[in-house]
Design a protein that fits this description.
Bound molecules: adenosine-5'-triphosphate, magnesium ion
CATH class of the largest domain: Alpha Beta
Mean pLDDT: 94
Strand order of the largest sheet: 1-5-6-11-10-9-7-8
Helix content: 25-40%
Structural class: alpha+beta
Shape: elongated
Number of domains: 2
Distance between the termini: 56 Å
Low-confidence stretches: none
């Protein structure tokens, strides 16, 4: 009896061997850059108590209102699959007393892993997606905001996508200046209520700053005349923002100030930023973040300034692929492919093991499964290896091995087994 084949959950993708080299290439570049700035990895669970995200992200956000994967477990607790990393990171730091005493008040952390949001799947928007995030605790000045932007700018350069992404920055001020602005904005939006899209109308009372985020062209047109937060900005935030801009200027990091840039999450204040590309359609934000000085306290810790960002790995992988900047050689699964011709299996194993011992950085694939010389040769070629080694009974008798160059016009030759390592290295 035929059964229906099983399928993955909608919006949750498999990562296939043909794609994983690009992810590994990307992830290793990111980790290299993060480590070169002295950031350290932290790992926390995928499941947390629902309350953490309700308090940490804010009730009146898209994420908490409609995107979370929440369920009651067998013990009766309401748990949620993390939709982002910042709240979990704060929880982990607090619980493990990483922000406890003067000696470790400053933390520069990074994390990576899957995040879950129940959204409408489309290009660059998934239900299980992956982020690399960075959070810094204990530093309140604009210098650390600037460092995060320098670090991401360097990363784009390392990846070869710096021409395709642009930096937008804004400041959201202190909670007080935001409250003042909120009043002015709500008054303005109420005057234009009927000209706004439905979502925006709903947001006026609940989360008016999010209206600035609307993608609706008619709403956008109304917003052209809306008051901006700059008119209500407090002195301290203004100075913070000016200093940040002057560091970026001095370090030649181009940016535009976008007064409509507000982050979706409640806890941001002062600096916010996004790196945006025009090459991926509507899902153009590849990295987003900002300052969240109130969050640690909100989650029960001592007042501790924080700033961070998260990049969407899927979107960056799409961009790398679109721009064709991924090196060809990452797709090879081997550097050396060993063919086994005739009754020499044990000796072939010994040769392969010897190479792996002496040259551990080489990827050595030994042919398993038998087959004709021709079919083995095809597999060698497909593996992407530069060199095929051929061990047959004749070779064995003479204590040699044949070396065939798969990507170069060089004649095949034999070498003594005890000289093989020299050739390969
Ligand atoms: P968007 O406006 O695109 O919904 P967001 O403001 O909800 O983004 P953040 O919570 O700031 O996104 O997450 C940081 C980054 O993670 C985004 O800039 C994006 O690159 C990526 N990201 C967010 N949601 C998704 C998703 N559903 N699928 C793929 N990537 C995502
Ligand atoms: Mg979103």
């Amino acid at each position: 009896m035929a059964t229906t084949p099983l399928q993955a959950v909608k919006g949750m993708n498999d990562l296939l061997p043909s794609e994983s080299p690009v992810w590994q290439f990307f992830e290793s570049k990111v980790v290299e850059v993060l480590h070169s700035y002295g950031y350290q990895e932290i790992r926390f669970p995928i499941l947390e108590k629902t309350e953490l995200f309700q308090r940490g992200i804010g009730e009146v956000t898209d994420i908490v209102e409609k995107e979370m994967y929440t369920f009651v477990d067998k013990g009766g607790d309401s748990l949620t699959m993390r939709p982002e990393g910042t709240a979990s990171c704060v929880r982990a730091c607090e619980e493990n007393r990483l922000l406890f005493d003067r000696a470790n008040l400053v933390q520069k952390l990074w994390y990576t892993g899957p995040m879950f949001r129940h959204e409408r799947p489309q290009k660059g928007r998934l239900r299980q997606f992956h982020q690399i995030g960075v959070e810094v605790f204990g530093l309140q000045g604009p210098d650390i905001d600037a460092e995060l932007l320098l670090m991401t700018a360097r990363l784009w350069q390392e990846l070869g996508i710096d021409d395709a992404v642009a930096l937008q920055i804004n400041t959201l001020g202190t909670p007080q200046s935001r409250a003042d602005y909120r009043q002015a904005l709500v008054a303005f939006l109420n005057q234009h209520r009927t000209e706004l899209d439905e979502d925006s109308q709903r947001r006026i009372d609940r989360n008016p700053l999010r209206v600035l985020d609307s993608k609706d062209p008619k709403t956008q047109a109304v917003l052209d005349n809306a008051p901006t937060l700059f008119d209500h900005l407090d002195e301290e935030s203004r100075e913070h923002f000016d200093q940040l801009k002057s560091i970026l200027d001095a370090m030649n990091i181009p940016y535009t100030v976008n007064p409509r840039l507000v982050r979706g999450l409640d806890y941001y204040g002062k600096t916010v930023f996004e790196w945006v590309t025009t090459q991926l359609g509507a899902q153009g934000t590849v990295c987003a973040g900002g300052r969240y000085d109130g969050l640690v306290e909100e989650l029960g810790g001592k007042p501790t300034p924080g700033v961070g960002f998260a990049m969407g790995i899927e979107r960056l992988i799409l961009l790398l692929t679109e721009l064709n900047v991924v090196p060809e050689d990452i797709f090879a699964s081997a550097d050396v492919y060993l063919l086994v011709a005739g009754d020499v299996l044990n000796d072939a194993f010994a040769v392969a093991e010897q190479i792996r011992s002496d040259l551990p950085y080489l990827r050595v694939q030994m042919h398993c499964g038998g087959g004709s010389f021709k079919s083995q040769m095809k597999k060698a070629d497909k593996s992407g290896a530069d060199i095929a080694l051929i061990l047959g009974e004749d070779e064995l008798k003479e204590g040699v091995i044949s070396v065939k160059y798969l990507r170069e016009e060089k004649p095949q030759h034999t070498v003594k087994l005890n000289e093989l390592i020299n050739i390969l290295s």
